[in-house]
């Protein structure tokens, strides 16, 4: 028991440090990529431009139809065969962002289509340009609606960062594997890292609920 306690007291600060220094920043950067991509893809589909809309549908089809782990391997280990060398951290951020962006784009597209078309037509009637209508009228309502789904995507991405160990990134979960291999205590180490993930996600869930209440107050409800 003394040995187990020593392993916990020594490993916990290290795992937490890796979580704060690597897992969370990679999640934030990946979510930023996913957010920008989802807005572009959702707006492209909402505008109903035939060619662009079809390209977006193909992107969503391919990304949602293939596993994230396969996508990571394809970019990091496959592209060098074509002479395209990618840095591991940028690969992780881009692939995570591109992957989650496909799901977020569909959520945002549904939220955009839920906004009554009459509001778009009303904006055109008062001489507002299409970009202004989207920015000031349609998108704010869509973002309020889609906020819970986007928050869930952020939490999901935090957990999905555990897969980037497969492309040689030593993040929180990989560090737990290294310690477990050295100490021969996988149950202790993996339980420990699971609890840290749970703590991170619990904090994010609490923040999500607080922000939802604010949106409910200022925007008339998040459904």
Question: What does this entry look like structurally?
Answer:
The chain has 223 residues and is mainly alpha-helical. The protein has a single domain (2-219), classed as MetI-like fold (Orthogonal Bundle). 83% of the residues lie in helices and 0% in strands. It is built from eight helices and no strands. It has helices at 2-46, 50-64, 68-78, 88-114, 117-125, 130-160, 172-183, 186-219. Helix 1 (2-46) crosses helix 4 (88-114) and helix 5 runs antiparallel to helix 6. The longest helix is centred in the N-terminal third of the chain and has 45 residues, at 2-46. The chain is flat, with a radius of gyration of 21 Å. It starts with a helix and ends with a helix. The mean pLDDT is 91.
Précis, in short:
By secondary structure, this protein is mainly alpha-helical. The chain is 83% helix and 0% strand.
Task: Sum up the structure in keywords.
223 residues; 8 helices; MetI-like fold
Main beta-sheet strand count, sense and barrel state: none
The class by helix and strand makeup works out as mainly alpha
CATH 2nd-level architecture: Orthogonal Bundle
- CA-CA gap between termini: 49 Å
Question: Number of helical segments?
Answer: 8
Per the principal axes of the C-alpha atoms, what is the gross shape?
flat
> The CATH topology, please?
MetI-like fold
Question: Got a strand count?
Answer: 0
Q: H/E order of the elements?
A: HHHHHHHH
The chain-level mean pLDDT equals 91
Radius of gyration: 21 Å
CATH superfamily: MetI-like
Helix share bin: over 70%
Count the domains: 1
For the record, the CATH class is Mainly Alpha
Poorly predicted regions: none
**Fraction in beta strands:** under 5%
């Amino acid at each position: 028991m003394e040995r187990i306690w020593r392993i916990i007291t020594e490993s916990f600060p290290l795992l937490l440090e890796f979580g704060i220094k690597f897992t969370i920043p990679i999640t934030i950067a990946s979510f930023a990529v996913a957010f920008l991509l989802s807005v572009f893809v959702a707006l492209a589909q909402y505008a109903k431009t035939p060619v662009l809309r079809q390209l977006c549908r193909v992107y969503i089809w391919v990304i949602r139809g293939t596993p994230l782990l396969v996508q990571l391997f394809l970019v990091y280990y496959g592209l060098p065969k074509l002479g395209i060398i990618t840095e591991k951290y940028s690969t992780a951020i881009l692939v995570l962002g591109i992957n989650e962006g496909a799901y977020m784009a569909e959520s945002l597209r549904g939220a955009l289509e839920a906004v009554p078309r009459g509001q778009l037509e009303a904006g055109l009637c008062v001489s507002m340009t299409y970009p202004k209508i989207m920015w000031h009228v349609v998108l704010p309502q869509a973002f309020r609606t889609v906020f819970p789904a986007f928050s869930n995507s952020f939490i999901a991405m935090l957990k999905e960062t555990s897969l980037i160990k497969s492309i040689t990134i030593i993040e929180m979960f990989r560090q737990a594997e290294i310690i477990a291999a050295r100490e021969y205590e996988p149950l202790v180490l993996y339980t420990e890292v699971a609890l840290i993930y749970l703590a991170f996600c619990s904090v994010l869930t609490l923040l999500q609920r607080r922000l939802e209440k604010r949106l409910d107050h200022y925007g008339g409800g998040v459904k």
